[in-house]
Write a structure and sequence with these properties.
Elements: H1 2-31, H2 36-51, H3 54-67, E1 70-73, H4 77-83, E2 100-102, E3 105-109, E4 114-122, E5 128-136, E6 141-150, H5 186-199
Helix pairs in contact: 1-2
Length: about 200
């Protein structure tokens, strides 16, 4: 219910901005000047009061995607097996792992040697980062990592009780979904494949 009320108010606000812009057009015609001279600054001010934060949010998201996002393999499984001869055959996949929580970090053991770890953090303008890692717990070495960013905008119509004011700004999600939004998520799929191989160690024996 709260979400419907919020979006109704938003609809009236947008309609009001539209009417104000039309009013500016009329004033321009009365003054004998080109309508755009009044309409553009009026629209920028009226719409900008609410929508101003989309540009910095989009820019922040794009910057992090370009600089830090992606899938990285620091050591292949073949290289690890070479350094740890015979160990892979002794491992047992953990089918129902007990999740471990430590602040923003969540861990799930995959077998006696590896864990899947992911960490959530928030950057400027609410951009959400998820950093996933496959770690050898004996050496504390990261074998593979996947980093992604998104706007973290939730649908308040589905979760209005936990929704924040920012969640009602649905336009902040335009162009700020996963860094692989709009395409086949190849990097995430590659990480999932690496994760699966690690989790299946020992099961083929």
């Amino acid at each position: 219910m709260t979400g419907l009320v919020a979006y109704t108010v938003l609809g009236f606000y947008i309609w009001g901005c539209y009417r104000i812009t039309l009013w500016a057009k009329g004033e321009a015609l009365k003054a004998g000047v080109a309508p755009w001279r009044y309409m553009i600054p009026t629209a920028i001010i009226s719409y900008g009061l609410l929508f101003w934060d989309w540009i910095p949010t989009f820019a922040t998201h794009q910057y992090h995607c370009a600089q830090y996002a992606g899938f990285t393999v620091y050591k292949t499984l073949a290289e690890w097996k070479t350094e740890n001869l015979g160990v892979a055959a002794t491992l047992t996949p953990i089918k129902r792992a007990k999740w471990q929580y430590e602040g923003e970090i969540t861990r799930a053991p995959l077998n006696e040697r590896f864990i899947w770890e992911f960490e959530d953090s928030t950057h400027w303008f609410g951009i959400h980062e998820r950093d996933q890692r496959i770690i050898d717990i004996q050496t504390n070495e990261v074998l593979a990592q996947h980093i992604d960013y998104d706007s973290a905008i939730k649908n308040p119509l589905k979760s209005s009780q936990n929704a924040s004011f920012r969640d009602y700004k649905s336009w902040l999600a335009w162009g700020t979904e996963s860094c692989e939004w709009g395409m086949w998520p190849k990097k995430q799929i590659k990480f999932n494949g690496f994760y699966t191989k690690i989790r299946q160690l020992g099961s083929e024996q």
